[in-house]
Every structure is written in structure tokens, then in C-alpha cells.
Write a structure and sequence with these properties.
The chain is an all-alpha fold. It is built from six helices and no strands. The N terminus and C terminus are likely disordered.
Length: 169
């Protein structure tokens, strides 16, 4: 469920709960979360707009969420709160640094665009780092292989000069 909330909030679908929202079916209905019927088509449209790789990532994350213990879920919720607070501070700083004075809808649009562009930058950086890592891993593996490879008995007797007394460092 939190995966859906995180997913929907990152897509801009998060809705405030409680407050003075009208009750469905008149005032006699029990107090509960606002009806989400109006969100379902929008959520479906946003889901359909996602690229297949992002849909697959979401599905995997949702499956992992369902397999987590309550303690692990709490840790994830806490991390998400910290992440959101950090991003909000960065959005506020970016808005302040631009010198713009935006309110209401314009501010929301600025925040949404900032977050979209930031996500693109982060994805690009992740790809760049992954690419560099893949290029450097073979050399690392070869160095470690040489470092940890057991010397063969024949090579061991001829490789070290007699009387050196101290091992190589």
C-alpha cells in the first residue's frame, strides 16, 4: 500500500487526508479517507504513460514491499520522510536562488518541473556511474586475481631470490 502512496505522491497524486473534506453519501456516513474513485482513472492514465521499465521497477518494488516485515516497512517510511524533507528543502532553495516569487499553482508547477528535471539528472548520473563501474571492474578483478592467486610450487621457488629474507609488501 505504501508503494502505491509513494508512487502516487511522486506522480503528484498525493491527496491530503482528513480535514474538512465533504463526506460521501451525506453527513451520516462514517468518517474515512476521502473517496478515491476520481483518482483511479488519473492513476490508470499515469500508469499507462509510464515506460515499461518504470512499470517493471514499480512492480518489483511493490512485491518487495509486500514481503517486508513491519519493522522494515517503518524504516522505509522513515527514509521516505527524510528524502521528501531533503527534496523540499532543495526545491525551496532552488526557488529562492532563482529570485522568483511564485505562489499557488505557479509554485506547484515550478516544484513539479524541478523534480522532473532533477530525476532526469539523477538517472543520467546513475547511468554514467554504472557505465564507468562496468569499464573498471575487469581491471579490478584482474588485480585481485593476481593479488590473491596462490603461487604454483614451481613458480614460487624461482620467483624469489635466495636470502632476501623479507616478504614483498
Amino acid at each position: 500500500m505504501l508503494a502505491v502512496v509513494i508512487f502516487s505522491s511522486r506522480l503528484g497524486l498525493a491527496q491530503p487526508h482528513g480535514g474538512n473534506q465533504p463526506q460521501p453519501h451525506g453527513g451520516n456516513a462514517p468518517r474515512m479517507a476521502p473517496p478515491q474513485q476520481h483518482l483511479r482513472p488519473d492513476l490508470r492514465n499515469r500508469w499507462n504513460a509510464l515506460p515499461p521499465d518504470e512499470r517493471q521497477t514499480f512492480r518489483k518494488n511493490a512485491e518487495r514491499w509486500m514481503q517486508m516485515s513491519p519493522e522494515e516497512r517503518k524504516v522505509m517510511r522513515d527514509r521516505e520522510k527524510i528524502y521528501r524533507a531533503q527534496v523540499q528543502r532543495e526545491v525551496d532553495a532552488a526557488l529562492r536562488d532563482t529570485g522568483l516569487r511564485l505562489e499557488g499553482e505557479k509554485r506547484a508547477q515550478f516544484e513539479q518541473r524541478y523534480l522532473q528535471e532533477r530525476r532526469r539528472i539523477e538517472q543520467s548520473l546513475h547511468q554514467e556511474i554504472d557505465s564507468k563501474r562496468q569499464q573498471q571492474l575487469p581491471a579490478l578483478q584482474e588485480r585481485l586475481k593476481k593479488e590473491f592467486q596462490e603461487p604454483s610450487p614451481a613458480a614460487g621457488s624461482t620467483s624469489a631470490p635466495a636470502g632476501s629474507g623479507s616478504p614483498k609488501r
